[in-house]
Amino acid sequence: MPSTERERGAESPSSTLAVEEGVATIRPIRIWIHVMALGVVAGVVAWLAGEACLNVVQPRRHAIVDRGITLNVSDRRGEANATAVNAGLAFILLGGSLGAALGAAGGRIRGSNRGAGSAAAVGLGAGALGAALVSLAILPAYDTYRLSHPDEASRDLILPLLVHVGVWATAGAAGGLALGVGLGLGDRRAILNVVLGGLIGAAVGATVFELVGAFAFPTAETARYVSRTGPTRLLARLLVCVCAAGGVAAAAVDALGRRSDVAA
């Protein structure tokens, strides 16, 4: 038994080195195809899931009597709270979908089904949790501003952009983390690079969506947490997920290229 343990211990470094060399020799086109394809899948899944629970939370209503007619009405605060909760749920679904998809992509690129499953679980948790925490931090504060300054808020396009960037960039960062785990990048610098790639990519996607939405779809109210039409909601998810995937893929290719240079 002692000799067997020594043999295992002796084999461990070489096995690790073999894995690292295998990762370093992955072709960039393989990374781009897997990551971009699953980025599209994440966007579609997030949209379908979001459409299924678009108005799952309804504002509280109370009865009033007007000219002898009883009406069930809600106040502005209740409507704002319900809208924020529904939006937060949509953002959680987006973060979880993007994180899971890019984690699975990382494992599949490396040729490991187990790694794909583990990284997808990491991405699902990180994306959903990150989106939830940022939503809790940002949405109530923005609602307070919007209700207390309705005229200014109705003309402001910068704050809605910052809200979307804040939440969606967090989802992109989680996707980058998940891909790094799936690929087995290991060192902190490489992980940080793919996280930043996802964050920046998602922020770019959010910005493009706001600009396109304001000019091409003015009636869809794309500055809202969740826009009013299905096609614009799909556009938002696809832009965020595809741009995040592009940023992550570029960072991963760069990280593995550096590793190949070091190995050479």
Automatic annotation (TrEMBL):
It comes from the Bacteria. The chain crosses the membrane at residues 31-50, 84-107, 119-142, 162-183, 190-215, 235-256. Keywords: Membrane, Transmembrane, Transmembrane helix. This is Uncharacterized protein. It comes from Paludisphaera borealis.
